[in-house]
Design a protein that fits this description.
disordered C terminus; 7 helices; globular
Length: about 180
């Protein structure tokens, strides 16, 4: 007998195309350590970083860049880093959340638990989130390299292909609400 997670992973593609967005008013390509780390970890795990952009801390520009990345045919997932704190310029969650069709609440919850184990109570300042948009997944991470490594190694990479595989499934049963209204 196969357990449900293993059965679901049968739909998981082996390699995915990802967009990496660094949200910052001060980072450049040369000193974007978190964006570079995301790309390195993706490639080391058999995925492709097909897009990379540095976006200013501006909600409209962030949203536009996420939408541009999602529209790219080779992108299965978007990973944004930066702008998740509580300062007035930290607006990445506000920019991205309205795009979500489904929020993956467990991602942010687990990230903060794991982060708490590493940095203590300061973990409550993180507003890391994830959700789905048009059969793709979007992750929003803090800007620190430590947070990026934690999120990628412990949460994103172990399940990324599984999530995308589930989003691509054409044979997935509709929710109970939809079943009752079909004729």
């Amino acid at each position: 007998m196969t357990d449900a997670p293993s059965a679901h992973r049968a739909y998981a593609p082996s390699s995915l195309g990802c967009a990496v967005l660094t949200v910052s008013d001060s980072r450049t390509v040369e000193d974007d350590t978190s964006g570079k780390l995301i790309r390195e970890l993706l490639v080391a795990n058999g995925h492709r970083a097909v897009l990379h952009a540095i976006v200013p801390d501006d909600a409209d520009l962030i949203r536009l860049e996420v939408l541009r990345a999602l529209a790219h045919g080779g992108v299965d997932a978007v990973i944004a880093t930066g702008g998740t704190g509580v300062s007035p310029r930290d607006v990445t969650p506000e920019a991205v959340t309205p795009l979500f069709e489904k929020e993956l609440a467990g991602f942010g919850e687990l990230f903060r638990v794991l982060s708490f184990q590493e940095i203590g109570a300061a973990a409550v300042l993180s507003r890391a989130i994830a959700g789905t948009v048009a059969s793709k997944v979007v992750y929003v991470l803090p800007g620190s390299s430590g947070a990026v490594r934690l999120a990628l190694e412990r949460l994103i990479l172990p399940e990324l292909a599984h999530v995308v595989g589930q989003l691509r499934r054409a044979d997935a049963a509709p929710s109970g609400h939809e079943k009752h209204h079909r004729k």
